[in-house]
Amino acid sequence: MLSPTNKSNILSSNNGITRQQLDQQPESSTSSSTHYQRTRSDDLAPILSQQQKRHSATTTRTEISTYYPCEEDMSSSHSKNKQVLYSHNQKQYQRASLGVGMMMNDGKNKAITSWLDHCPWNNESNNNSNTNTNDLIYHEQQHPERVNIENDYPNPFLGILVVILFIESVVIIVLEGFRVRQNVYQSSQCLLSITGVGVSFTNLIYRALVIAISLYQLLLCVDTLRQRSAAQLYALILLGFLYVIFAIIQTYQNQSIEEWMVELQCIDETSRTIGPHYEYAILAVIPACFLVFIGCSIWLHRQFTWYDHCYYPQQQKSRTLMTTPENNSNQKDEMNPRFKKAAVTLATLLALVKVDLFFFFSFAVQLSPSALLYYDTTTMEALLVAGLGMVLFIIGYYGILNEKPWVLGFVTLVAAVSIAYFVFRLITFAQPHLSSPSGEDPYRATRYSLIYTLLVLIILTTLTTGVAVATIRSMMHGVRILRDCASSTQRINNNTSMTTAYYSHDRQNKSSSSSFYQKHKDIGRSETK
């Protein structure tokens, strides 16, 4: 057995590791091995000075509630909820290499416990965490769970959806442009009359609507890919299906308009011989692109989610969530089925509102030639429909994004009342009319489009009202998805910055700390021998 003097010489000659440095370490630590504890408490006890013993007797007791060792070779000698003793007179003590966190003491008889409750489980994968790791979510049982998220990174094939709709829009614009040119030339051959101008104006309006739907569908697709929302993807598919039906109706309606213009002495042989080929081309392009779009949507549907990104972070795959009592409760709430249901209803409501907006304007535009064709409606009614539709959309969107149940309830009430107006106009347009001065039915060429638009508005408004009621009910019960999402995202960002700072400090001190403990073990082995 070595004498105290020899022990002191060994300590002083071991690469600058002094006895004072060893004495400043905790007497019993969860991060040290069993052999180190025995050496520290038995063999090195005689070299402690009386002042150090007094400080050891008055050490501060700190409990670590959650502990996960990073070193696999030390995992057998560690456990949770250990009592760790820290000397209250030390200025700063760091144990970065053992993943416990940063322990600091300000000299005022208090110790700050670990703020990092976990550590990287795979050093190699942690270095490439942007591409190789999954999110680690710690639940109340304090066990790591890997969450497989298939929509973490944008799939390059998602651009196919935009390309399909872009090609469709370009083709439709070109084909409809040829038809508009023919329509303008045909209208120039007509005898000037109010009815002739109204029919020509109506033809231009419906061709513009076909182009507008394709462009609006393209913009909605871009917004869908930006949000990665499954609800908006299905709303986009619904809009495409309604677009196909509208194109079929327009093919039949344009033939009726051509016949009406011939009756008004608007004769153009080119329009009668070449025009139908463009109509059939348009009728073939729209359903074909829709079928391809559905196929790609089914192929890529896993890239979209029904829930908000605060539940399953899409762009935070490399971020490691920290475990604290607050985080545990928030994670428990986020996984609650009630919160999932509220997130689904909110996303569905946002998607339906965007589809409703287009059909409100479509109906208002179709009412614009009412004064020329002697509709039962007036131009003021068309302006009111467009204006009120825009105002309701703005107020409703504000109520949804700010989660104002009373504002959203007001918009829902007005939307429910508008259903009665749509039903009234549906009955009006479905009945034959011979009240025009010319004795012609003013709806002979536009009746099917008006009826179709009103039916779509009635169905969409009813669905939107029902989903809005469910959303308001969730808000009244205190479930605020966007608010919780914002706080969760801020919490993740704060934890990420703390984790990044810790790992940077860990890499700087890991080598020196590891060598210190290894040399300390070697000293203990030599003394035992």
From TrEMBL:
Residues 1-60, 503-529 are annotated as: Disordered. Keywords: Membrane, Transmembrane, Transmembrane helix. The chain crosses the membrane at residues 156-175, 204-221, 233-252, 280-300, 342-362, 382-400, 407-430, 450-472. Residues 519-529 have a biased composition (Basic and acidic residues). Residues 1-36 have a biased composition (Polar residues). InterPro entries: UPF0658_Golgi (IPR040410). The keyword NAD does not apply. The keyword Transmembrane helix applies. One of its GO terms (cellular component) is Golgi apparatus. Signal peptide: none annotated. This is Uncharacterized protein. It comes from Phascolomyces articulosus. The lineage of its organism: Eukaryota, Fungi, Fungi incertae sedis, Mucoromycota, Mucoromycotina.
